[in-house]
Amino acid sequence: MGEIMLVAVIVAATAAGVWWVPRGGAAERPGGGWLRHPGTWLVAVIALFFVNQVLFTAYVQQALHGDTSSIARYMPPGWFDLADLGRLSQALPAWPWTVLHAQSSIELPLGMLSYLLVCRWFSAEVFRRAMHARWLWSASWTVTFCLIEWDLYSPYTVVDLVIRVISGIVTPLLLPLLSEGRDTPPRLLPLVASLAALGCVVLAVYDTVTLYNLGHTVSWLPIVAGALVVLAAARFWAQKPVRHGPTMSSVTNALGWFLVLFLVPALPLRYGFNFGTTAVSVLAGAVIVAAAVWRGWDHRRFGQLGIAAVAGVVGAVVGYVIAHGYPEARLLAAAVGFLLAGAGVCAGLDRIGDRTGNKRPVNIDGLGRQ
After folding, report:
1. How many CB atoms lie within 10 A of CB 40?
2. Spatial contact of 1 and 275, defined as CB atoms under 8 Å apart
3. Span 223-276, pLDDT tens digits
4. For residue 32, which phi and psi values (nearest 5 degrees)?
5. Taking Cα atoms as reference points, which of 220, 182, 181, 173 lies closest to residue 201?
6. What b/e sequence results for 197-219 when a residue is b if at least 16 CB atoms lie within 10 Å of its CB, and e otherwise?
7. Rounded CA gap, 243 and 246, in Å?
8. SS3 assignment, position 366
């Protein structure tokens, strides 16, 4: 991948995320039941991924006699650890389009639905702003996927690029069918727990089906089962009403703005760490964090911000160090550590404020309105 092209995408996406995305809004999208819930369609996309992997395994067994070397030579290490499907691999049809093409069509919906689900958990206002930016968001992620595709050039690349462009058009066309959920302030701890659990599930999907490692499925089952239990408990807990103190209101508002500002440049920033543009990704990430804090944090409480930031950085370092495996796992652990430590300190500051008789405002939508 040309580093200059990736840098250009990171800079353009960050500028658009910080400057253009906050200027837009979107009409309300009332609830429409489970059929319009992004989580429902995320599960459907994951199911499609697994169906494709089973059919891919059948194709490899029948057409390639179990040897993936002709495909694996175009990919980085760590791909194509196939599962043993026994007689099923001979009974299923051997379809060549299961090799890379199907993945190219549903990788974008997987990422966008996962992000939208987190936005919906946070607040209806954050969800609306994300939906308003869906075309720019889709364009940024599609261009990034195409750059990666071209960098890993193979006989499948040209068709994959066409498929990714089509997916980049169809996905944002369909997203308005989704509903936004309730417009209530989020409980931060169950939100962080939900984010961590969803991240574990997405990492499992990434390893087992995005990288064609269906043979890793059994080893992931205990982790995914635990993550789903945590997710169910966290979503139940999240339904309880909450009143944020002044410092936690600032935390919630800033986090809501971060979700909005980060969605467009998220993918190019992530791959900047892999393709030689780490410094640019770090700088762009710092700009996004600063913009989110500036928009969401109560400017009268910047003293508390410094304390929370130090605690958050310590938590992020601890999370990053104790995690292992894919870079995404370390980034997820760092993010969770940052939020838990920073929010914990802020909650403590509010408790101290309560004892001195400070009034506690009620945060309504997570984007600075009280």
Report:
1. 14
2. yes
3. 999 999 999 999 999 988 888 888 888 889 999 999 999 999 999 999 988 787
4. -135, 25
5. 220
6. bbbbbbbbbbbbbbbbbbebbee
7. 10
8. coil
